[in-house]
Write a structure and sequence with these properties.
Length: 293
């Protein structure tokens, strides 16, 4: 310490400090940040948190087309127990009953958001609802059917390769990333009064290179229609799943991941397996929510 004071007593040294003060401060701040970062990364939990945000940043910067299932599945969900309710009709909403599982259930808060969207649609434009809540039993059934078809069409294919192809057509029931099983995801499009969907480049559940929301193989009309749909849904908090232009969600793991909120999920799976059967783990209030007029 005495040597330091002696050094500071030298007017030339004081002059040097004043001349280079800004650099000294910057070095001190950088050193402090480095010490904090090393201490922060010493925790496994913090390392996982940091990796998640770096992964999300790479998506935001366009370095990745989607976020990986690994990181989506590691979003923490704090279930809010918003009930599943019946999707009651609205004058500007058209249901595709061929693709919607019955009963047509959806989380109450998500439903009210869709009603607000429908309220603001111009004349001649409607919200076409293609799918809402999907039960685990139906997901299991669809998964087994798709997997069986792929194996039959590709003799000798390994089970892992078959499952990889199956995930492109339907959701893996073991996947914990959220989606329709939470009741907070919807498949939607805009359509005319006859229920005829506008041109989006593909049909619902048609999987090609054009299915990607930002596919480079779209016509100008198709790009415009997709932008309008995304802009409309985003205005009310929904997030689009980049590999399916029709899929939007609010509050589930996919939504939180693409928002960059590792602890932000509020909707988990609505069902769980008990003694070999699936049972609801959240309230299911059939037709008792406020009617929308």
């Amino acid at each position: 310490m005495e040597k330091i004071f002696e050094w500071l007593d030298n007017p030339e040294n004081i002059a040097w400090i004043k001349q280079n003060l800004i650099y000294i401060i910057l070095i001190a701040v950088a050193f402090g940040c480095l010490v904090w970062f090393i201490k922060y990364m010493s925790s496994k939990r913090n390392r996982q948190h940091f990796k998640f945000h770096m992964h999300h940043l790479s998506y935001v910067l366009g370095l990745r087309k989607t976020m990986s299932r690994h990181w989506v599945g590691r979003v923490h969900v704090h279930e809010c127990f918003d009930p599943l309710v019946d999707f009651l009709p609205h004058k500007n909403i058209i249901f595709n009953n061929d693709t919607i599982e019955q009963p047509n259930l959806i989380r109450k808060k998500v439903l009210l958001k869709l009603y607000r969207i429908a309220d603001r649609l111009p004349e001649g434009t409607n919200l076409l609802v293609l799918s809402t809540f999907r039960s685990k039993a139906k997901k299991d059934e669809a998964w087994k059917a798709v997997l069986k078809q792929i194996i039959e069409e590709n003799p000798g294919i390994g089970i892992n390769a078959a499952m990889k192809l199956a995930r492109l057509k339907t959701s893996d029931p073991r996947d914990n990333s959220g989606g329709h099983g939470t009741g907070a995801a919807v498949d939607v499009a805009l359509c005319n009064d006859k229920g005829e969907m506008f041109d989006y480049g593909t049909k619902f559940h048609e999987y090609t290179d054009v299915t990607l929301t930002r596919s480079s193989k779209l016509t100008s009309e198709q790009k415009y229609n997709r932008k309008q749909l995304i802009r409309l849904m985003r205005r009310y908090g929904f997030v689009n799943f980049p590999t399916e232009w029709w899929h939007f969600s609010y509050g589930d793991r996919v939504w939180a991941a693409y928002k960059g909120r590792r602890n932000g999920g509020i909707y988990s799976s609505a069902e769980t397996e008990v003694d070999g059967t699936y049972k609801f783990t959240i309230p299911v209030n059939r037709t008792i929510h406020e009617t929308h007029k």
